[in-house]
Amino acid sequence: MAANLKPGTTKARILDTTAELFMRYGYTGTGLKQIVADANAPFGSLYHHFPGGKQELGVEVIHRSGAMYLELVLGVFDAAPDIVTGVHDCFAGAAEVLRATDYADACPIETVALEVASTNEPLREATAEVFESWIEGATEKFRAAGIDDSTARELSISVIALLEGAFVLARASRATEALDAAGKTAAAAVEAALRR
Amino acid sequence: MAANLKPGTTKARILDTTAELFMRYGYTGTGLKQIVADANAPFGSLYHHFPGGKQELGVEVIHRSGAMYLELVLGVFDAAPDIVTGVHDCFAGAAEVLRATDYADACPIETVALEVASTNEPLREATAEVFESWIEGATEKFRAAGIDDSTARELSISVIALLEGAFVLARASRATEALDAAGKTAAAAVEAALRR
Lengths: 196, 196
Prior knowledge:
The structure is a homodimer.
Chain A: H1 10-25, H2 32-38, H3 43-49, H4 53-79, H5 83-100, H6 110-116, H7 121-144, H8 149-173, H9 177-195
Helix pairs in contact in A: 1-4, 4-5, 4-7, 5-8, 5-9, 6-7, 7-8, 8-9
């Protein structure tokens, strides 16, 4: 798995650089020449590590970024005293990152997911697998807090949708109002489910 | 305004075709040659109607699609017996369109908004203006139903975020589960605000 790669290796640098470029420019807008230049890697190393070229690299970046982001979010949940605070902290943390990165770093796979949904099956499948892993990870947290299975899954989908949707509005408006509003609605939805 | 263009004119065909292509391929993935070919327009007509090229065309498509989408959604609200049903019907209608278009036609500007947020100021501003017009349109509906100003705006942002986020999940998974779950959460949030 790419997630176990030694940091600093050429392959790890290519993957990290590509993930960064995908967030800012999307899949179509990211060129292989820019990747090797930013990763300080020889051009040949790209096809050495990813014989399938940009698509193979893209699939690996989506899986790797998706796994790292899940770990990050689950860490925020684990550090919070309760699940409602955990949800609130995820939106507040995301708002902070957006402000700190000049509204560039939001979801690592959202732009790519929309670009490839109708055009590239292997990439679409990779984004679908990542989103499903996030939904399952959040569902597990909500179930552990005592919410029934079907409500927990609906809630997970809604919280992730609120976050992804707020990212679009926040990046477009260069303001975090959408993350504040969506975070409030997400926390209220979890509270309502806990009361049931 | 482009929205008042006579349908069937070359300019209207170019705008409609570009809007369609943006939904499926995004801004970067849509080429000018493909636009004129699909619009059945001579190449020169593109620069005749849009001297600023792809960027000027993009800005006009975003404004035009945004205005048409707002009208469509407000029409769904107006046809519903109450605001909660209106919100539900928006998500149900979006799910139906996604299924009917093989998961291609979701939000007309979401993909472009994410692609351009860090790279193209005129296009980013156009997407921000459209999202703000949607937020204001929905806020007006919620205020008319008796919800206070600040709650109405938060609710509008949240409902739009739920819809935009569900579009990402639905297109990636090629399933409408996310729209069903997000629609339920959106309707519940509006119900809770009405009870306050």
